[in-house]
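About this split. The held-out portion is used to measure sequence recovery: a designer receives only the C-alpha cells and must propose an amino acid at every position. Recovery is the fraction of positions where the proposal matches the reference. Here is one held-out target exactly as it appears in the evaluation file.
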C-alpha cells in the first residue's frame, strides 16, 4: 500500500530533476556560445524536455543565467571564506583566499568557461545579493583581521572592492592561459596587495 506522500515525493523529485536538467543544459549553452547568442530554445534543446516545461521553472534565459552564477558564487564564497578563516598571517589570509577561488574556477571546466566567455555579463551582476555577499563577507573578514592585529587599520570597503575586482579580472586572465595556473594567479594577486608594484 502506498502512502499519500509517495506521489508528492515522486513529483518533487521530477521537479528537481527537470530544474537540474535545465541548469545543466544552460551551463553548456552559455559556455559554448555565450549568453548573448543563447536562446531559451537552445537551452531546451539540450534538456529532452518539452519547450513549455522550461517556463515552469524560469521566466527567461536571464533568470537561468543568474541561477547558475549564484550557484557558483555560493560555492566559491564558502571555499574562500574557509581559507581566510584558517589563516594565521596576513599572507595566508590573502593567498589562501585567492588560491581557493582560482582553484574553484580551474577545477570546474564548465563554470570556468561560463565565467570566461560571459565575463561582461557576470560583472554586470555584481549588484546582485549572491555576488555582492562575497564583497560583504570579505569586508567583514578584513575587519576581523584588523581587530586580530593581522592587518593595519584600512578602509575595508575600498579594500574588499579592490580585492574582489582583482580576483575576478585575474581569474578571467588566468582562463586565457595554457596551462591554467591557479597558484601563479594567487601568487600574483597576493604580491600585488602585500608588496605593491615592483620598483
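Reference sequence for scoring:
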Amino acid at each position: 500500500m502506498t502512502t499519500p506522500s509517495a506521489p508528492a515525493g515522486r513529483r518533487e523529485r521530477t521537479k528537481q530533476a527537470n530544474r537540474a536538467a535545465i541548469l545543466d543544459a544552460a551551463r553548456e549553452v552559455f559556455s559554448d556560445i555565450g549568453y548573448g547568442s543563447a536562446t531559451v530554445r537552445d537551452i531546451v534543446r539540450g534538456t529532452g524536455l518539452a519547450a513549455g516545461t522550461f517556463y515552469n521553472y524560469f521566466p527567461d534565459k536571464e533568470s537561468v543565467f543568474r541561477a547558475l552564477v549564484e550557484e557558483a558564487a555560493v560555492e566559491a564564497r564558502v571555499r574562500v571564506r574557509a581559507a581566510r578563516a584558517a589563516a594565521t598571517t596576513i599572507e595566508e589570509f590573502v593567498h589562501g583566499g585567492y588560491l581557493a577561488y582560482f582553484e574553484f574556477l580551474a577545477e570546474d571546466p564548465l563554470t570556468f568557461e561560463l565565467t570566461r566567455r560571459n565575463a561582461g555579463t557576470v560583472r554586470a551582476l555584481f549588484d546582485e545579493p549572491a555576488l555582492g555577499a562575497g564583497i560583504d563577507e570579505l569586508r567583514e573578514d578584513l575587519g576581523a583581521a584588523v581587530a586580530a592585529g593581522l592587518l593595519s587599520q584600512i578602509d575595508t570597503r575600498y579594500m574588499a572592492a579592490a580585492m574582489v575586482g582583482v580576483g575576478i579580472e585575474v581569474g578571467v586572465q588566468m582562463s586565457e592561459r595554457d596551462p591554467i595556473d591557479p597558484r601563479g594567479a594567487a601568487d600574483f594577486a597576493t604580491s600585488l596587495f602585500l608588496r605593491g608594484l615592483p620598483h
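Annotator remark: Residues 5-33 form the longest helix (29 residues).
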